[in-house]
Fold each of these.
Amino acid sequence: AQSVTQPDIHITVSEGASLELRCNYSYGATPYLFWYVQSPGQGLQLLLKYFSGDTLVQGIKGFEAEFKRSQSSFNLRKPSVHWSDAAEYFCAVVPFSGGYNKLIFGAGTRLAVHP
Amino acid sequence: DVKVTQSSRYLVKRTGEKVFLECVQDMDHENMFWYRQDPGLGLRLIYFSYDVKMKEKGDIPEGYSVSREKKERFSLILESASTNQTSMYLCASSSPGGDNIQYFGAGTRLSVL
């Protein structure tokens, strides 16, 4: 079945440590790929997106993500986490181009940051 | 700046009540979406609209309806609220074509007692 998987429900890191959040998708063709962040009590904010081209994409707040076609993955990374990064992170895909751009979301990864 | 506004941040309703959740966007976007968010399930699409008076069912439309009389406004209606509709509801909008970016409102947390 077509799906987006975020294997880690909760992750806890220390402030200043590096971070990698995993995302895998199961669609035949390369979809459009997104990472969104949701701070407590807030809506979703787009961190970054991949449509085509360079497989390493830069986003806001110092985040980056790498698309790996062979692994059907789009993992989110940050070299040094700040306490303000504590939030829930969602990977999402648009499984086709154009049309009504329906987003399919993963279940989310909740990030806690220890001082 | 892009803005999607949901009229209520928190709502408490009784079982059987008719509930309206309102969403307004100021970006002249054709597409608008309603999602519900539940722990461990991520966001699930309830309905979307690609034009005024047009609507399409998403993945979980049962128990919901929508209305889009004007381009900027998209309403989610719970005809007879039930306790299993207690959830966070998120509205989003986007323009069609290559952008594919959805912009989200802050959400409405609905409790049905």
Note: Chain A touches chain B through 27 residues (CB under 8 Å).
Amino acid sequence: EAQVTQNPRYLITVTGKKLTVTCSQNMNHEYMSWYRQDPGLGLRQIYYSMNVEVTDKGDVPEGYKVSRKEKRNFPLILESPSPNQTSLYFCASSLSEGRNNEQFFGPGTRLTVL
Amino acid sequence: ILNVEQSPQSLHVQEGDSTNFTCSFPSSNFYALHWYRWETAKSPEALFVMTLNGDEKKKGRISATLNTKEGYSYLYIKGSQPEDSATYLCATPHNAGNMLTFGGGTRLMVKP
């Protein structure tokens, strides 16, 4: 089944404790992206990647890192999480350029930073 | 930051009503306009990606139109059903690049 998977689905952590949210897609998509969703602010793009070893900042990259060492994986890293990073996070992928190809979204990761 | 606005923010309709809502975006450097449907507790799912001025797309009872010169898109739902209840999101790329900006969404609730 074609899908985007994220792990974990739910995470409660404490300020400053490094964490990684994994994202994997099995559709051989070139473009992958991370979004956060906050009430009243909608979906905001954190980082995106056009292909292996190519990543770019989105609207809200501060406090996050990403890597794209393999085509299928695009982990989101929070080196020192803070409470303002409490949010619902979505990973997405698309066939090639994100601008004119539909995005396939993962199931979401709900993160709480205490 | 690109300004993508959706209206109304929320909408309550009765089953069987037809409805429509709007996505407004800057008309300069337009490249594409995406529509997604997002049900509660699920992930957003793509409805349409539109690129040409005057484009009309249809999927079942849902259709969308695009006016790139004036910077808006309409999403129409004919004969709304309770299962249409969801948040409908539009998105467009910054300056024809690959960073997508989403609107705040229109939350549709269809009463049986």
Note: The interface with chain A takes residues 1, 31-32, 34, 36, 42-46, 49, 51, 89, 91, 93, 96-105 of chain B (CB under 8 Å).
